[in-house]
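pasting for ref
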Amino acid sequence: LHKSMQNGVTKAVLHKYSSKDLRGLKKFIEDFPIARGFLIYGGTKRFYENNIEIIPVDDAIARLHDIFDP
């Protein structure tokens, strides 16, 4: 976990995640199969795990328009 404060805003970035972090999102996708799942994290690699796209935070910010408007 990396924490920093910039312009009065505290930012916490997880560089790793666990399967526990995906649990709710996996259940949501099971219930709503048309939904797309994303986990944004502080790492540097982009990949898929159980139909969930794992995206580094810098990549996610750069492509927010793609994420919210497929």
